[in-house]
Amino acid sequence: MLNLYNANNHNGNGIDKGSVRVPLNKNGKKANFEKYQDPSGDFPASAFKWSFWYIKNRVLLFKILIGTLIGLSVIFWSLSLWKWGDYLIFGLPEMQNLSRESATFIDYTGLHPAFTAQPLQVIGTQVHSGSAGKIDAVAEMTNPNSKFIVYFDYYFVFGAEKTPAQKGFLLAGESRPIVQLGLDGAVYSGSASLTLENISWRRISGHEALDPSAWQKERLNFVVSDFQYLSRGSALAGDSSAVQFKLKNDSAYGYASPKFLIGLFQNQSLVGVVPYELDAFVAQETREIDARNFSPSLNVNEAVVYPLIDPYNKEVYLEPEK
Fold first, then answer.
1. Do 222 and 250 touch, CB atoms closer than 8 A?
2. C-beta separation of 194 from 152 below 8 A
3. What's the CA gap between 72 and 68, in Å, rounded?
4. For 81-114, how does the pLDDT look when each residue is reduced to its tens digit (9 = 90+)?
5. Which of the four CATH numbers 3.40.50.720, 2.60.40.3230, 3.40.50.10190, 3.20.20.70 does domain 118-210 have?
6. What is the pTM of this model?
């Protein structure tokens, strides 16, 4: 029964520990609440155990939570102050320098040759006379780029007259004549100048050729031997000059119908050109070449063969024998 006159509501059964009396069991020992069994079965002993533990330690848990939050706040504020200090001391001056540098124009001209094509070089333009009032316009050109093929349209201008446009190309690093042959000398007279239009560059991928110059040389390996020049009017040449030599396809590739331009040189000066076309020219084959030129005054001591073949075009090759 509740004793209203007992400030701690003690009834004399238990141990007085300050303001809390710990109840004793019937054997006089301290009661063990962890072994409590709920008669209804709705409140298992484990739940009672953890509830009792929580009530007993909730003040400690609260202190641990507060201490953890305080510790995290100290860490986060320390990092924030450190980053702000780093920005004010180092970052702000760097940002000011970057702002000044961004307002200054950088000249990238020096980097252009590595990534873009350099212009074509025209060494010289010549006009060679032929027979029956015909002339040939010739321009010696060079593609100085080791990684680019160039395709273009071209024509020659004689005063107020210009020749019909033709298509041409130069391989990477290639130098050879660009020509228009058999022009009417009555229409086109005087000196000529070369005009290029619709210039298109194609960069050679490393997957095609790591070294384009060596790759091209391997495929366009044509060897001239046994050169002989027969002047006009001789018994063997007749009414035209004859350039005779052997041409060997010293590569491992055959070509379906290759076209060539034969440059005629006198003391290392180009004095004439002759177009030449072959039928199927297989690898390691040698052909007898007899090229004719009708120029009335021609003297030749060397012939240079320029293949007009684009080795990057698969259609120029002969199909492998099965």
1. yes
2. no
3. 6
4. 998 888 888 888 888 887 777 766 666 555 555 5
5. 2.60.40.3230
6. 0.64
